[in-house]
Amino acid sequence: MDLHAHLLPGIDDGAPDEAAAVALAEHAAATGVRTMVATPHLRHDYPDLDPAELPGRVAALQAALQARGVPLEVLVGGEVDAVWAQHQTDETLRAVSYGGRGTDLLVETPYGELPMVLEELLFRIRTRGFRILLAHPERNPTFQRDPERLGRIVDSGVLVQLTGASVTAGRRSRACALAHALIAEGRAHVIASDAHNVGGRAGLAEAVAASDHPRARWMVTDAPAAILAGEALPPAPAAPAPTRRRWSLRRG
Ligand SMILES: [Fe+2]
After folding, report:
1. Could you tell me if 145 and 213 are in contact, meaning their C-beta atoms sit under 8 angstroms apart?
2. Distance from Cα 252 to the centre of ligand 1, integer Å
3. C-alpha 177 to ligand 1 mean position (Å)
4. Which of 89, 169, 210, 221 is most exposed, with minimal Cβ within 10 Å?
5. How far does residue 163's CA lie from ligand 1's centre (Å)?
6. Which residues contact 14 (CB under 8 A, 6 or more apart)?
7. Which residues constitute the domain of residue 196?
8. From ligand 1's centre to the CA of 6, what distance in Å?
């Protein structure tokens, strides 16, 4: 299951047209993905997207995939900017939540230095009844420098989505180091592609293969299934037998 992909054509910086969207879906299906959530950017620099249109757009793409025999289920979702969300009605937030269920929202980690108000913005969204899946925090330099800040957010009940390309990036990548530390600490819950086009980023199978932790497979199967169902996450697989800790959130 892939909970983060810019699959809908002609909306944001993802698939530019239907042919590109079908190609991206075919590629995902060929690598074993059976369900993909279309999560277009919902933020002030994409003002033309009406969330009420999302079900129709997803249905049209699903029909195109079925016509071509592509075995991929597409669901409604969105990658919500934390400030944008503050100005939306409950109805709009529900429309861009996973499956339109009104339970779980994918919230984008802001780029660059994180404002101190971020935690307050996330808290306000949660008090409106949504569970948050925070998109790719491992890529943010503030969290890379201060992983304890991210740890406190996770410990407050926010779920974390890692991008597959971060998990596969290699030890010289700070995003990779933080991603593996979060997996090892049990503070990451989903691995998703954040795909914008075919071949642009590592797929889920590559990411699972790049982790030696059994939690990684849970992060592309059982955990995302629970989020799509709006249910509590099932228990994660136990860590491997303790050896020297390879990844840690703690510095020094
Ligand atoms: Fe994204």
Report:
1. no
2. 32
3. 20
4. 89
5. 9
6. 5, 6, 7, 8, 21, 24, 40, 195, 196, 197
7. 2-229
8. 6
CA-CA distances (angstroms) from residue 135 to 23, 48, 110, 115, 166?
Answer: 24, 22, 9, 16, 12
Res. 252 pLDDT band, cuts 50 70 90? very low
Domain at 180, CATH number: 3.20.20.140
Whole-angstrom distance between the N-terminal and C-terminal Cα of the chain?
Answer: 36
Residue 47 lies in a domain: yes
State the distance from the centre of ligand 1 to the C-alpha of 204, rounded, in angstroms: 15
- How far apart are alpha carbons 209 and 206 in whole angstroms? 5
Residue 128 lies in a domain: yes
Residue 45 CB contacts under 8 Å (≥ 6 apart), including other chains? none
Is 246 a domain residue?
no
181-200: pLDDT as tens digits: 999 999 999 999 999 988 76
Query: Could you tell me which of 110, 181, 119 has the C-alpha nearest to residue 149?
Result: 119
Whole-number mean pLDDT of the chain?
A: 93
**Distance (Å) from CA 245 to ligand 1 centroid:** 31
Total number of domains constituting the chain: 1
